[in-house]
Amino acid sequence: MSTVAIVVIVVVAAIIVIALLALMPRMRERSRIRRREHELQGRRESAATGHREHAESRERRAEVAEQRAREAEQQAEREHAEANLHQERASAAERGMADHELIEEDERDRFAGTSADRRPDAD
Question: What is the pTM of this model?
Answer without folding.
Answer: 0.51
